[in-house]
Amino acid sequence: KQAASVVECKDFNVHPENEGKLVMMRGKLTYKGEITEDPELGVRIKSPILQRHTEMYQYIPSSSDEKTRIASKGWDKNGHPSFTDRYKHYRSNPSFPSNLPKSKDFACDLTMENGNLKIDGDFVKALSYGQYVTFKDHYEHNMTGVTKLPSKKLPEGFKNLGNQYYRFQSDKDTKPNNRIGDVRIRYRAFKWNANLPEFTIIGRQKGDKLYREDGALFFDYRVEDDKQLEREIRKNNRNAMFGALFCGVLLALGALFI
Questions:
Q1: With pLDDT > 70 as the criterion, what percentage of the chain qualifies?
Q2: Cα gap 189→29, rounded to integer Å
Q3: Which end of the chain has the smaller Cβ count within 10 Å, N or C?
Q4: Are 117 and 13 in contact (CB under 8 A)?
Q5: Lowest mean pLDDT among 151-155, 168-172, 251-255
Q6: Which one, of 82, 85, 77, lies nearest residue 178 by Cα?
Q7: pLDDT at residue 250 tops 80
Q8: Environment class of 163 (CB within 10 Å of its CB; exposed 0-12, middle 13-18, buried 19+)
Q9: Is the pLDDT of residue 33 over 50?
């Protein structure tokens, strides 16, 4: 059984004999006020997770039922404008500068139940992914905008407006006028909520950390016994297999048109 290869750490502490093994912990995450940093732009905040959002004010493709509303507002026929990073290559939008800091998530290490076995920051970031419904709900509800940004590593061409870095498309602008091509960089941080539910985490132990490597899993609830764990591992393996098969089919179809 695959669950038999997983070692449970019941006291949430480092055990040298588990080095290199898949280790499972079940309980509540612990956050002790650690700092999370964006080293590229020098933004530091007391929070387990920090998000950097880089967006350009650009046209968004519109569906046919929006054309009348768009025309009435005087918007471009290609669609209504908005801050987003989703339509970088849409025909009416200017190109994103190649040196622009991209959207990115940052996270610090966490522990469980005040133990000393850490959960690596890259693993922590994965807790917010869509398949982990419970954590994502708590995560989104507890995200708050960073209102005071430093200027020490201000990106070239940007101004610090306090709660965002802003690059104006027009040199005449001093305040955001939402012109096509304006770029903004904003941050959101996770406001820790001690009422987060219990989780089950399986990671590979290296030193004093669990890493999100081969065989690593996260469940947004407490797995109660080996039978349930075995079912979840098998389900995860099936999903991974179907995902790999789907990607293979797409690549094969793509090759036909090259």
A1: 72
A2: 17
A3: C
A4: yes
A5: 251-255
A6: 82
A7: no
A8: middle
A9: yes
In contact, 75 and 92? CB cutoff 8 Å: no
Contact 58, 94 (CB under 8 A): yes
Rounded-to-integer distance, Cα 97 and Cα 193, Å: 37
Task: Please tell me the total number of residues recorded for the chain in this structure.
Answer: 258
Beta-carbon contacts of 202 under 8 Å, excluding residues fewer than 6 positions away, are: 6, 22, 23, 24, 210, 215, 216, 217, 218
DSSP string, 158-172: -EE-SS-EEE-SSTT
Give yes or no for a contact between 187 and 149, defined as CB atoms under 8 angstroms apart: yes
Which of 110-114, 213-217, 218-222 has the weakest average pLDDT? 218-222
- 163 close to 146: Cβ distance less than 8 angstroms: yes
The pLDDT of residue 134 is above 90? no
**pLDDT band with cut points at 50, 70 and 90 for residue 128:** low
Q: What gap in Å lies between CA 184 and CA 153, rounded to an integer?
A: 15
> Which residues have a Cβ under 8 Å from the Cβ of 191 and sit 6 or more positions away?
47, 142, 143, 144
pLDDT at residue 243 greater than cutoff 60: no
> Tokens 């650009």 identify what position?
58
Instruction: State how far the Cα of 119 lies from the Cα of 116, in Å rounded to an integer.
Output: 9
